[in-house]
Amino acid sequence: MGRMGEKFFIQGGRPLQGHVRATGAKNAITKMLVASMLSDKRVTFYNVPNIKEVDVVTDLCQEIGMEIIWDKKTKVMEVVTKEIVSTTVHQRFSGANRIPILLLGALLGRVDREIVIPTIGGCAIGKRPVNFHIDALRDFGAEIEYQRAGAEKVVTARAKEGLKGTIVRLPYPSVGATENAILAGCRAKGTTLIENAAIEPEVIDLILFLQKLGVVIHVDVNRSIYIQETQTFHDVEHTVITDRIEVASFGMAAIATKGRVFVEGARQADLITFLNKLREIGGGFDVKKEGIEFFYDGPLNGRIHLETDVHPGFLTDWQQPFVVLLTQACGSSVIHETVYENRFGYTKTLKEMGADLELFTQCLGGRACRFASQNFAHSLIVKGPTPLRGAQIEIPDLRAGFAYVMAALVAPDQSEITGLPYLDRGYEDLEGKLRALGADIKRIKPKKLATAGC
Fold first, then answer.
1. In a 3-state reduction of DSSP, which class is residue 138?
2. Tell me, what DSSP letter sits at residue 314?
3. pLDDT digits (tens, 9 = 90+) for 340-396
């Protein structure tokens, strides 16, 4: 991800104006691709985003045995896994994303062989411990160990006597651990109950997909999910939900640049908490039949308190661009990050761009979180409005990357941004969409060095 790669050059100070269509949710399609390997049935997905993250996951699934036909123009993907041809995932997927561990839940009930996956990676925003996953799968009767494969660490798993339905009590409503437990429960003998489960829209979309596939599954009160053993599966057609992170990203960028953008496909039901906070600071939005229009509606008022949380709370992936938005609002605001302990690393660059930010290790919130008294800088005070200036920026992770792009769009001079592969993971044709909205943004590829002749 170094500075020798492609760069964005952004000349800011222009309001974003126009119409943009939101893509399918990265955090939904990637999980459902893995879930489709529970059976040998054919699955057709619609509204599939053409992003690097999906490329990586399709490569991973093909290595396991999935056959894929993907029409990127129509956003339609057809997949079928008639046979599991390999249960060992190559080390090249070790740092790509956090999907490999979900293969355990999907495959343990389908094959009676040892499954080997590399250690998992993704954005460096916190530890994201996998013990929630491992403990849940062990509740089903899986034998899981960490082993060395040469210089690398791998996770090995097997259920010699098959998975057995169980009660999984998650210590924290982790999205990934919930999804893994759901996948394991689909083929586990008997009934499974998952308590303190995540109920994010992407998890619900997975549940709806699995119901179509043939699974008897439902969400009950108090974050409980019930699943019955499934032996008969069906062909499925499923439309991926709209990416609520992308929707909010374009909405905040429109307001921060004092513009007006209609985001086609935006779903109000997935954005309730975000829209409430937007309204609190005076940001304009209008919910329409085909989406939501976001617009600048006069000076923004800060002086708010915001805590990230699991759904239906304020999504941690909305936090970074919202901080940029608050730099343009009057007054001091408090952000308390309760999901990841290291999510404010991006603020150093924003301060260099002129933002008035101060980090705290204390819980500046209505309640103490699991990072209390652990010396993690997980609270932030934002003071505004402050003018931002262009800068040379290196992107450290996906969501910080959009926050930097947004800050560069606000700053009236030029910014140079590297580390674009992070953005390509989660945003489809970001520069093209921004240009269509009037942004002065160019993507520059590095010049190839000439090779010496004989």
1. helix
2. B
3. 888 999 999 999 999 999 999 999 988 779 898 899 999 999 999 999 999 999 998
Distance CA 385, CA 413 (A): 17
Radius of gyration of the chain (CA): 22
Enter the tokens of residue 97.
């994303």
List, in order of start, the domains of the chain with CATH numbers.
7-22+242-444 (3.65.10.10), 26-239 (3.65.10.10)
Active-site hit among 123, 186, 363, 369: 123
Assess contact for 224 and 7: CB atoms under 8 A.
no
Residue 178: CB partners within 8 Å, gap ≥ 6?
170, 194, 197, 198, 203, 225
Report the alpha-carbon distance of residue 409 to residue 368 in Å, rounded. 35
CA–CA distance, 284 with 135 (Å, rounded to integer)? 45
Residue 233 is predicted with a pLDDT of 98
Cβ 426 vs Cβ 373: under 8 Å: no
Give me the residues of the chain with pLDDT under 50, please. 1-3, 122-127, 449-454
pTM of the model: 0.93
**Please, what sign has the CA dihedral across residues 336, 169, 161, 208?**
negative
Residue-wise DSSP of 11-27: E-----EEEEE--B-HH
User: Alpha carbon of 276 to those of 268, 270, 296: distances in Å?
Assistant: 11, 12, 15
Residue that the structure tokens 């997980």 belong to:
378
Known active-site residue 363: no
Edge-to-edge strands, sheet with 76-80: 67-71, 76-80, 43-46, 236-239
Q: What is the pLDDT of residues 413-438, one digit of tens each?
A: 999 999 999 999 999 999 999 999 99
